[in-house]
Input
Amino acid sequence: MPELKTVALFFVTALAEILGCYLPYLWLREGRSVWLLLPGALCLAAFAWLLSLHPTAAGRVYAAYGGVYVCAAILWLWLVDEVRPSPWDLLGAAVALAGMAIIMFAPRHL
Output
């Protein structure tokens, strides 16, 4: 069960990071309100805090998180941008998730 908690935490972290980048994007590219920068900054602060909740070395967390971020970004592409992911997008996301699982859940010998 700790594996499921880890993956869920990574997905919440990815959502915070994507929102933290998407809200300024809306301001810069779509001409939306400058006030979007405030929740965007809060999302990025939450992103950093969420990464700190993992009980392993920071470098390992950052490396593994990248795999989940790739998958979350493909989901964002589909659900928010309304662009259907290609089979190659899905394969890449699956490979990234496999990399995350290897990094986070491989047996460690101290």
Observations:
- Residues 2-105 form one domain.
- The chain has one domain: 2-105.
